[in-house]
Fold this sequence. Notes:
The protein has about 325 residues and is mainly alpha-helical. It has nine helices and no strands.
Amino acid sequence: MYLGEDTVTNEAPVAKTALDTGKHPIPSAFRIWLFPFTRIHRIPVFKRVWLYLAVMAMYGAGVDWITDHELRAAQVFKEIGAAAYTSVILGLLLVFRTNSAYERWWEGRKLWGQLVNESRNMCLKVKILVGASKADRNRFGELLISFAYGLKHHLRDSRPTKNVHGVDLDPTANIPVAMAGELYKMMMKWQNEGIIDGFTRLQLDAHIKTLMDITGSCERIRSAPLAVSYRAFLRQGIALQLLALPWFVPPDVPYIFSMPILLIGSYFLIGLELIAEDIEDPFGEDGDDLPLDYICDKIQATITEILELPKQRFTAAFKAPKLDPLKATESPK
């Protein structure tokens, strides 16, 4: 099956994830469980958390040296169980934070799955329209493909550098809305020409309306993050917990044994917050974000197959280099 290219970047998306989640035979169970440990460098969050762990290791070593040589009175803190109480409270807050972020990620995945289904259903209905020209069917499919890629880049704040299939777009135009408008125009054109009746128009109208509902829901997820006060409060709690943690290590535990325990606790505290931070906005390009490139590619492949579009005829219709405010603007390919 032809998978095509990204109509915006002309690049074939990579449909690989950090960890393989597919089913395997029972003899491979141990290998699957060991994979997150043997390939830890492929876990997206580890690429960010290791630096925090290095700082924590140096801080823990400094605290251990101070309490053993310079400030022996501080060892009294190591016999207080306050760390256990603060850890429980912080753990509950982290659970809420992670669950809230995952709900946003999962809702985004369901919306894009719905987009795949709506695209297929629309194309199947358009394919059997009696009287619709091949050129009209091709244009309908191309606009629908552009809608998916346009939504992806709209959610990533990318802008087109060329007109989309002859549609003059304002530099600030909302690409998904513009593509939906063109789909409505084609639908009304078919009705005026007698190709479709009012009932068929209502059926197609429901699909296009769903596309706009998906767009609005994705925009809501992207533009409404978790409350700033809650995020700031939680990060303050994590920072204070990590600062206090080395002081509560029992004095009779050697440094060589206390350090791994300290780093493991720090790894999960920091890692959970970084994971929640990544998946809170699921439409980016981080390793834990939704594979939008792959989903758009599958939409393009399906529409190309159903409507029998000329392969690669429309893949260079427009380009939208990512406009990252922290990086130099990429030049169109």
